[in-house]
Amino acid sequence: MLDFTLEKYNKLCKAIVDSDYIPMSVRTFLEDQQQKCVILRHDVDRKPEQAMKVAEIEKDHGISSTYYFRTVSDVFKPDIIRAINDSGHEIGYHYEVLDRAKGDFKKAIKIFEDELKEFRKLCDLKTICMHGNPLSSWDNRDLWKKYNFKDFDIIGEPYLSIDYEKVLYLTDTGRTWNSSKYSVKDVVGVESIYQVKSTDDVIDLLKNEVSEQICISTHPERWSDNFGSWVKDLIWQNVKNVGKAGIVKYRTSFHD
């Protein structure tokens, strides 16, 4: 079976519900901090219709997860956002305001407030998650060095509010799993001790219960439902990974 397909994601969901782990959204985890859980988070960077398909798979398994939507016009689709929210999932705000404001914090927080209001016309939004553009020189998380997201009735940001010393972080960034070689911004400061190269490896970690708490972060557009789009995404991701690996190498050597 090919990896990064909706069929494979369905297999991952089945493994979660067949395990002793409790699947939950970011909001539920932050409010509850239950033991033995899998936190499911999705960054909707593009192709929101794929997010809808992933949400339907999870709903079929009785899983509730979190979907962080960007506000760019081809992603911020109110009908899809409402549908995912109505199916029992959490909607979050995938903010990129420091990028848009070109590092101007005052402009950035105003954009944040305005976009947050648009989300709250559609749902009860309580968590946010930064979008990491590998080509940008700004880190959107830095906004909270000057401001406090709790002032906006936000309970948490997964990069800042989850202790990854305790929670095993697994991400499909780069269409791989936990490859620091391709992660420019999607990093949590804790290196995984596990070799995870495929979704089957993730399933094995679940079966072996390697950690009491696990956070699985995916990008729905990477999970294809036909062979043509699978090949197209594979080629395009390989091209991007060459560039991302170069950025990571440059930044590492610059800081050494």
TrEMBL record:
GO biological process: carbohydrate metabolic process
Superkingdom per UniProt: Archaea
InterPro entries, per database record: Glyco_hydro/deAcase_b/a-brl
The protein, known as: Polysaccharide deacetylase
Source species taxonomy: Archaea, Methanobacteriati, Methanobacteriota, Stenosarchaea group, Methanomicrobia
